[in-house]
Design goal:
mainly alpha; 11 helices; 0% strand
Amino acid sequence: MKNNLSNKDAATQKVFAKTALNELRKSDHPLGRSLALCLVFENAKNQFLAASVFNLAIALDAALHIPSESTLAAIRIQWWSDALAKTANQNVPLVACLQSHYQSDINFLPQLQEMIGEWQVACHAEPRESSAGWAAAWRLVAFYLGHGTAAKQAAMIGRDLLCSTRGQKYTDSICNTDIKSFRYNDQKEERSWLYLTACLHRKLQRCPDCDLESARTLHHPRHDDPLLVWRILRWHFFGPPRKNNPCSK
């Protein structure tokens, strides 16, 4: 009976993970598909948690940037904070997904609220800018995927990739890091998300004009890099891109 319950829980988690990843992949955010692809080699538990946190970050970005007035943005962001804190059954799938993690970790909600706080701060500045919020999201995901010692570097990668979606150049904040080390977390368990996002970070830095936005305009007509799936596979099986190579268009 216990094994049956365990198998049922595992199957349910795989369904939740698939749903969260699909939502991330199909989102309008320029990082959505890239992040979803960088999570494909993680286990279902990690996929579910990471995709849910990034989906929340995307929702908070929309709440921050869509309203014309900062007061309306603050109200929308506060709604997410209040909804996540409620104990009643939730009709919002993303809220329910995030709340499902509360049972296994009582600190998850306070950490989510701390992350949301970065977007709340951003409401009171002009222009409204969410890089601190995204850095907090990457730190949170890194921590829960076992990369606690690399959480600062994960936040830098997240901030830089966000800059790239805006056509902003960034310095290579992890240039002196052996990104192959990100293949393993602090418990020496094999992981892929942070390693693959570091590979993407290096790929964009190799050719500063090839950020996610300009690549869409200059190199191909589709909204996303059509070769990204193959790049992910190559990085995963054959190693990271080399430093300072000219971009292959």
